[in-house]
């Protein structure tokens, strides 16, 4: 029969405490700092030349080495073999500074010691010489948390400190520090540590600790740390505690609530192929497995960013953070789209990320983003559009079908004459080459659905204009202040949007604008003093007329001084001419 373990007596020593990886692998020399070579070189040169300032300010994100650098600098100044850029780490001073227990190196937390009384106590003590070291060094972490009165109390001492005193400030929010403090310090900005350097450091820790971890798992942790070395080491500690001795990418994804590279590439493949059904199924699967959908959006943003970098900077660009297998899939997907389409996709994902903050409908918003990405048309650059217009090319293909609206005529007797706007608007613009919307009919139906008050304001003072696919601009005539306030109200624009959606089955973007007074006849000759054409004459020019037909747009306003002839000349010169091959002879 096995004997039970004896209980520890109160006199027995406690079991050895575990020290986390981030503390055990804290840099002890300037050469150990990862990703902060510019800071290490500057401080090393200052120590070698004897030009050490009386006050330093270290600023940067969390976990990038600010406090570690402050301790290394304190050791370098007070080491028995110093001042030296390479402290011995063997003397009592170096050992006590390394653990934050030296009597002459005072580490102060600015968040909990931010009152003016505490800074006054500091001022009264700076006059006393150090107990055993060369310098009395004050390291104030999160110095931006000091109160305004505390900063003011520190000014004089910081400007002319005793020769045996050094100040080292550390902060993550340098913009909150008064300029009077900044001007009295030498400032060093600590950079985010690259994913590649964090990955290499984690490999070193795993090897030293005798642990087992897949490279893909370490890469996920390094990327998750977002430039913070300390965060990466803390995450590694956490992951190893949850694993059974062998850390795999699958376990890391499970603990983080993120999707695997294969799942991300499959979702991207479905989106880029326009396979909405598969894309929505991937989201449903991710949600049912407990994945964090907010993290999934971040992963999609990273994927689209990777495609953007591949199309702009090339595959060897060091900032593309992806495993080799994922990078190959990213290259294949990037080759199927142009840059403008990728950029539009990033805009959609970024807007979705903003919307989900505080929302209880995260899955709905993500599904909406996937549907929009899947329906995103192949976008053309301005140069390509100009070439198509100048060479009578076909209009860009669009996926959306024609929008049909039951015709209904507004009773002309109910319309009140509206003051002329600066630029006349066409009432029935073309939306796409595949279908068109009769704006007059559509607007009449919308006004009927708005009710008596809103509908009356729209009839009296509003002129609609389509400025893009499913995009409606409402211009309110000058002098109709009450009508403008009513129409531009969020509830009214939302009601108009819902009415348009009900009538067309499509989502619409609504923009309300205040019209300007039209110039008098004397001020609007066929050509103004500069010789420029009037807006309606500009739209008769072949380039502008073809552009309006190709894009399904119309002129809403023309900026003063706009020279259409110069624009035509510039576009004609810049746009490539497409040669039309001769018909084959029969």
Automatic annotation (TrEMBL):
Chain segments annotated as transmembrane? none
Catalytic activity field: DNA(n) + a 2'-deoxyribonucleoside 5'-triphosphate = DNA(n+1) + diphosphate
**Highest taxon listed in the record's lineage:** Bacteria
Q: Which Pfam families match?
A: DNA_pol3_delta2, DNA_pol3_gamma3, DNAX_ATPase_lid
Q: Name one GO cellular component term.
A: DNA polymerase III complex
Domain AAA+ ATPase: residue ranges: 52-194
Q: Kindly state which keywords UniProt assigns to this record, in alphabetical order.
A: ATP-binding, DNA replication, DNA-directed DNA polymerase, Metal-binding, Nucleotide-binding, Nucleotidyltransferase, Transferase, Zinc
Question: A GO term (biological process) for this protein?
Answer: DNA-templated DNA replication
Coiled-coil regions in this chain?
Answer: none
Which SUPFAM superfamilies does the annotation name?
A: P-loop containing nucleoside triphosphate hydrolases (SSF52540), post-AAA+ oligomerization domain-like (SSF48019)
Q: What InterPro entries does this protein map onto?
A: AAA+_ATPase, ClpA/B, DNA_pol3_clamp-load_cplx_C, DNA_pol_III_gamma-3, DNA_pol_III_sug/sutau_N, DNA_Rep/Repair_Clamp_Loader, HLD_clamp_pol_III_gamma_tau, P-loop_NTPase
Q: Does Nucleotide-binding show up as a keyword for this record?
A: yes
Query: Could you tell me the EC number(s) of this protein?
Result: 2.7.7.7
Cross-referenced CDD domains, in alphabetical order?
A: AAA, HLD_clamp_pol_III_gamma_tau
Give the GO molecular function terms.
ATP binding; DNA binding; DNA-directed DNA polymerase activity; metal ion binding
Identify its protein family.
Belongs to the DnaX/STICHEL family.
Function text: DNA polymerase III is a complex, multichain enzyme responsible for most of the replicative synthesis in bacteria. This DNA polymerase also exhibits 3' to 5' exonuclease activity.
The UniProt subunit note reads as follows: DNA polymerase III contains a core (composed of alpha, epsilon and theta chains) that associates with a tau subunit. This core dimerizes to form the POLIII' complex. PolIII' associates with the gamma complex (composed of gamma, delta, delta', psi and chi chains) and with the beta chain to form the complete DNA polymerase III complex.
What is the protein's given name? DNA polymerase III subunit gamma/tau
- Please name the source species: Limnoglobus roseus
Q: Which gene encodes it?
A: dnaX
